[in-house]
Predict the 3D structure of the following.
Amino acid sequence: MPTGTKITDRQSAIDFLFSRINYEQTSKIPYRSAEFQLDRMRQLLDKLGNPHKGLRVIHVAGTKGKGSCSAMISASLQANGHRAGLYSSPHLEKLEERFDVAGRPCTSDELVDLIQTVQPLVEEMDSCDQRPTFFEVTTALAFLHFAQEKVDFAVMEVGLGGRLDSTNVCEPVVTVITSISFDHMQELGNTLPEIAIEKAGTIKPGIPVVIGVTEEESLAAIRRVALENKAPTFEIGRDFGFEYLGASLDEAGLAAEFNYWEKETGALGSFEKIRTSMAGKHQASNAAVAVQTMSQLKLMGFRMDNTGIREGVSKARCVARIEVMNQRPLAIVDSAHNPASTRALVDVINEALPGRGGVLVFAANRDKDVPNMLRDLLPTFSKCVLTTIENNPRGMSVERLAEDVSAIQREIGDLNIDVFTAKNAAAAWEKAKQIARDDDFVCVAGSFFLAAELRALVGQIESPRQT
């Protein structure tokens, strides 16, 4: 987009944003290079009047679970009478989804106003060869929007890593680290402790850290960073925890129940039979982390009661996280894009849909651990439709996916699965409907971008239940 082009409507605003370097859709992310630095982010915010400095931020990092946990924290804050802002990424359908206040995405008019405010400042930085990226600009928009909306709390989800993420300029009241597992290894490191150090880069001096990590080497790395910063830690399994009671499918979709406990020094005590609309043991863990975050806020003197927390955790939704979109055929859309996520998905399917036949629709990015994702998924399904993500340079070709599936079929001798291919997501969905039997379910997995494309198509089907 040419410098100085006037922003007059939503399309010109979107064009301006997407003219920036966007590492969400590039094949190489220069995470440890000069391209990733917080000085540029701070400079942009300074030009905006530092809107982030007046916000009470809850900063949420983690390999997986940070989106679900952030949604539960935001919903619990709102159920307790606090006006909450929620910044998340990426978006599924509309950019406005990233900037949520009190459960409502920002309007198109609000987005245009925000981008009109930031445009001249960004172009001024461009002229000095400081070119802010797409994610830096959207993060600045989030801080500005939340300041203008006078939120009581801003829940800021980390985009990539933590230490060098654009959100890490914030001054949180609580830091949250949900989990550590293998993802973005090229950028964050090849071992779990290396990845943990990057996530732990969000820890600030003296600020409490709520930790959902259980793997011992990762925990040790996080503890070291917290000790260096004299930041008190509150760990799942040590200071608080949960008892998973199971997942089930009903007309409202998939749900789960769990009990929650914390040490007697906590502010909330114990809960029995908390319901979450996000199914699986991993979501019960995320919910327990969210509840402990509320406990920390209550210890600081903020109003939090158990009824409001129950309501918030129950009502929180996170699209494309084992989301039931349709009943005939039963369609589950999930954004699982690493082995930890695919294992969690398989656990929920085996628990809630035992013995039921399934059709997998799968696509993935080249930078993901595709073989191990497929090893997790394929034994659960009787049919598989492989496809690719259009207009995404990181997308793996159908031919390469088929090669991986063939290799896994040879590796797992008794793997009995029919494999089909489709040129794009729409064709894959049509094929899945065609080959699914009456009692089969269809599951979309492998990529956030695939989930975004297919969620819209799945939701168009006439059925007894629509979401």
Remarks:
- The mean pLDDT is 89.
